[in-house]
Every structure is written in C-alpha cells, then in structure tokens.
Design a protein that fits this description.
Number of helices of chain B: 11
CATH class of the largest domain in chain A: Mainly Alpha
Largest sheet of chain B: 4 strands, antiparallel
Number of domains of chain B: 2
Radius of gyration of chain B: 25 Å
CATH superfamily of the largest domain in chain A: Multidrug efflux transporter AcrB transmembrane domain
Oligomer: heterodimer
Helix content of chain A: 40-55%
CATH class of the largest domain in chain B: Mainly Alpha
Order of helices and strands of chain A: HEHEHEEHEHEEEHEEEHEHEHHHH
Number of strands of chain A: 13
Shape of chain B: elongated
Strand content of chain B: 5-15%
CATH topology of the largest domain in chain B: Multidrug efflux transporter AcrB transmembrane fold
Radius of gyration of chain A: 32 Å
Strand order of the largest sheet of chain B: 2-3-1-4
Largest sheet of chain A: 4 strands, antiparallel
Helix content of chain B: over 70%
CATH superfamily of the largest domain in chain B: Multidrug efflux transporter AcrB transmembrane domain
Number of helices of chain A: 12
Distance between the termini of chain B: 24 Å
Strand order of the largest sheet of chain A: 3-4-2-12
Amino acid sequence: MLARRIMAIVILLAGAGVGWFLYSSQISGSKPFRLGLDLSGGTQLVYRANFEAAPTDDVAGAMASLRDTIERRVNLFGVSEPIVQTERGGTLAGAPEERLIVELPGITDTQQAIALIGQTPVLEFRLLKKDVEPPGTGAPIQNINEFFEAPAVTGKHLTSSKIEFNQGVGGIANEPVVALNFNSEGGKIFADLTRDNVGRYFGIFLDGVPISIPVIREAIPGGTAIISGNFTAEGARELARNLNYGALPVPIELISTQTVSGTLGGEAVEKGIAAGIWGIGAVAFFMLLWYRLPGLISVAALALYVIAVLALFKVIPVTLSAAGIAAFILSIGMAVDANILIFERTREELHSGKSVKDAIAEGFHRAWPSIRDSNISSMITAVILFWFGTSLIQGFALVFGLGVLVSMLTAITVSRTFLLALGIEGKSGVIRFLFESGSRRS
Amino acid sequence: MIIVKHRNTFFAITGAIVLSSIISLIVFGLHLGIDFTGGTLVQVTYPTGRPAAEEVSRSLTEAGFTGYSLREAGTNDYILRAQNMTEDQRANLIDILSVDSNSASINQLNEVGPTVGKELRNKALVALALVLICILLFIAFAFRKVSRPVSSWIYGLIALITLVHDVIVPLGFYALLGKFAGAQVDTLFVTAVLTVLGFSVHDTIVVFDRVRENLRINEERNRREDFGETAGRSLGQTFVRSVNTSLTVLITLLVLFFIGPESTRYFALTLLVGIIAGTYSSIFLATPLLVEWEKRRSRK
C-alpha cells in the first residue's frame, strides 16, 4: 500500500514537472510547438525533377545537390525555418518520380515564392553527339536528347563563378564572359571529357537553353571553364552572381502548390485550442458525472495524458496541422475509453459481491483484452494512414497513433495506481455510492 | 433483451438507413476533390465586401478560366475550384479576382498537379484495401477460438457485415453533403472513413467477446440457456460501455465540429456520422444478426 501511494505521488510530481516544462517552454518560447504551414501560414511548393530532359546515373547525388542549392537560395531571402526536402513519389506503375518539397513559412504570396525558387539557374555541360550538326544557340532545343549526350558536368559540380573580360582583337578587353570554377570531381570530369573529345562540340546550357556550343580545341585541366555568349556586362554580372548562389543539376517543374494565409492559419490555431479546451472539459465533466470517484481518477489520468502527449509533440517534435489537432481532440475522447471499460467491469464485479479492492483488480484484469484489441485496431489504421499520407494525413496519423499508445499507458498504469493508492476497503454504502455509475442505483 | 426480441424491427430500421444511404450515393454521387483529380482550389476573401458572383465569373472567364465553380463561403469569401492554372493566370490571380473596387486577398491556394492527383487516388485505394485486409486478419485472429453453438467464422462474417454498414452510411451522408454543401472527397474524407473502420470493428468485437465469455461460463456451470437469452444478456452487459465510449468520442467530435478549425469541419462531421453508425450497428445489428442466424440454423 505504501509503495502504491509513493508511486502515485511520483506520478503526480512527474506530471506536474512535465506540465511545468510545457508551460515555461511555451512562455519563454525556447521550445514552442511546431506548427505546419496550414496553421502558421506560408507556402509549400512541390517540384518534380525532370530527369528525362537531363538523364544521369547519379540520381541521388543530383537530388542532394538540388536540395542544398535550393536551401541555400531560400535561406538567402531570409525565410525563417524553411524546410527543403526530397521525396520519391510515384504512381504504382512506372518509374518513381523524384520530387523536391519546399516549405516557406510566412511567405503567403505564391507567385513571389515561385519566383524566388525560379531564379536558380540550371547549368549543364553536354557533349554534342557525333555526326550531328550543332544547333543554334540562344533558344530552347526540341528533342534535346537527340542532339546531346547526357549531361557530364552540371550545377552540382559548380563552386563559384565570376565575370571576366576576354582579350579581344588588339588586346582590348571587350567581351564580358563568365568564368566557372568546378569542384575537384567536376574538374576531373571536365578535364577527362575535353582530353578525350578534342575536335567535338559541347553545349553549355543554362535553364535548358544552349548559351554557347564551342568546339573542344584542347584538354582543359584545372577545373575551370568559360561561358561566352554575347553577354552584356550587366547580363554577365547578374549571371555570375546567380551562379554563385548555386546552380541546379537538373531542371525542375512545379507540380503542386499550397498557400495558406497567416490570418486563416491563426484562426485555425485559435479555434483548435478552444476546441481542445472545451473537448477536455466536456469529457472530464461527463466522466465525473457518470463515474463519480473512479471518474475523478480518470480525469486525473486524462490530465496526465494530455500533458504527456503535448510534451511529446514538443520533444519529438511533431509538426502540428489542423488535421493533427483534430486527431488530438479525437484522442481525448478515445483516451477515456480504457477507463470506461475498466470501470464498467469493476462495477459488475462489485455487483457480484466482491470487495472494492478485489473488484478493482478483477476489473482491470478482465478489461485488458478489450483494451488491447481496441488499441490494436486503431494502431493498424494509424500505421496505414501514415504510409498513405500526404504530409496532412501523416500529421493526423502520427498524432492519432501517439495518442492511442500514450492513452493506453496512462489508462492502465496511472488509473490503476491511483485507484489502488486510495486504499479503499470495505463495503459501506458511501463507498458503494462512490463506485456506482450514473446508470443504476445500488 | 428488448433489442434481441424485436430484432426484426431493428433489421427493418437498419435496412431503411442503408437503403437511403445507397440511394443518396447513386442519386448525388461522390465528387472527387482536387486532391485526387488535380486542379486548383482558391479561397479568396474580400475584406471590403464580397462582389456579386457574376462579376467575379465574368472576370475569370475573360482570363481564360473554363469549367470552374465558384461557391460562397463564410461572409466575405468565395471558394473557386478550377483546373490547373497557366503561369499567367497564377501571376495575375489577385488582379483577376479583384473586381470593381473590391480588392481580393487570397486566404488559401491549393494547386495539385494531375500526376500527383492520380498517385494519391491509387494510394487511397491501396490504403483502403490494406485497412480492410488488416481488419479481416484482425477479426480472424480475434475469433480464432472455436466456439459453440455458432462457429467462429460466423462472428467474423457478421463483424464484416456491420463494417460494410458503418462505411455505407457515412458515404451516403457525404454524398448528401456534397449535394447541398459542396463537400468533395479529399484525403481527409478518406482518413475519416479509415478511422471509422478501425474504430467500429472493435465495438462489435467487444460485444461478441462477451457473448462467447458467457457461453463458456454457462458451459462450465452446466447452465442451459437459450442462445438468444445469452446474447441478449451479453448485449445488456456491454451496452453502457458501448454507448459511453462512443459518447466521449462524440462529445469531442461535436466540439470539433462546432468550434474547431474550418478545415476539419466536414472531417469531424463524417467521423461523427461514421461513429454513430458504428455504435448503432454493434448494438442493433451485430448481436440480433447473430441470434437470427443461430435460430435459423437450429430450426433446420
């Protein structure tokens, strides 16, 4: 008995401690809840990497470079806490689609967001196929893969670029060009390529448009290359600056956008919080009214459940969406499910003439298979939903799954400890009344 | 037990509910949202007051929008559903939507590419199939122990029938909602249906578990009892529990529906209908079906 009571006090203190962490971290802002774009307001853009236009053997490397480059670009514009990630999507049949997901909290002008990403140039060096006449420069080429081989050196090999002026006729510096510096891998590929293909043409492409298609006169070691394409000084300067922020190894196409304004998001948060508070209050009220003393204990268990789950949201951290909040509120209703099973069973045992203590123990014991089964079927749904999910649904599934697991723990351990720690013995009328439920008179 | 005794009445009620759901589904149909078809969804708000729909429509048509739908929402909002926009349309969206002196502000803009929509549609179907298979396995597992006088697989079959009921009712309801409130089938709706499936199957299992427990106790104590009596008694014992667990969930869903975020309103409503259907079927359909089957079998 003493051990149970100590345990109960430990649980209460732990709950209070975690509750304090929740409160203080929210007030100080040191570890706030992480809100999804639909709550914070912002824009999500989903791009498809177009590897058909620029085939490569190293898809993973290209995607990593794509992500880094876009991330650098987004950071430049001072977007706070952007998320840039790659994802392999795809219909069930056919080749998987490589995607890039860009989340920009606070940016609610879709067009501005698209423009921000769109300024990143795509840079490719491609050998002209043998026995093909070089096409004209300055305009996009149809059937580009019929003219050119797969890109050899791309934006992922670029380290820096700067504007230079070519020595023109008579030693007058006149034509502005852009000098590129490659990393060691890119430098080696470029040196090998030029050494092995003297006499052939190669195309330098920016955003899929051939800027120049020079002929290779000699091997070019040293990891540098020059782009000359009838630039004005201003044009070359802008290109060099843009390339310095990074160039993409593969062209990207926008396939989905989602923008939510800050007002709408803020409204959703306010309503979500209100619904959460009212939901907890209404369920607690119902439990107290119907189950009396055990009801009070289930309310304590519910409070601990809420504290534990909210703390987990912060610690993991879980990105909360409107669907996630809905899952959390739904889970409040389901969290007391285990308690109801236990209390109903306990009441039955009381009716069969057992002492309160025995009835509680038996109630827990008998209710367990039902509690286990109900949580299994909910967990199955949560796991499949998480797999099925877009980020929206995954938010729901994660919160739902967490809620199911944590509520099972709090219901069976916390409620049990508290109930037994009360140490109620005997069969007096008052005690019976306290353990009765609203449906019947004892 | 009154529910078991008057089971034919309840079969008639259940039949009527299911039939009207199916009729609603056939007549109104379910309309796939942009999540599954690809397209554009814009929620536009007019802080200075909403212009007439015809004016906005005229402006949209001039800008080359075709086959779109414009629906009033809130006090100052419109919801525009359209095909994927061209770059020009996207760039000038605010100008296009601002008519006369009513300047538009975009509250929400969703664009889903056609391939993404198709992918999600496939995924939703696979998820639905997976949940059904897992629940079937779960039912088979839950009823693995042979029991008399009704064999295990009958319990499983009836659990499955109630499951079908629990899905058809919210589907029919959603078709109605689509007709009168413009609700479209999106990923959240699929989520709601899958959640209902997981939730309601267990309700039925709890009642059936109790039936088998009581049958076992009867056998141990050598007590002879009519199957209908045993089933009715089991139903009576689990009735309060069934209603109360659903009630607490319904309380939270009602709260979510009335004061929760706008974006999850129909989601909460679908869950509400599905869980009511699930609770109803576990009480008024599952056990009466079980008794009916046993009665017919023993009459032979």
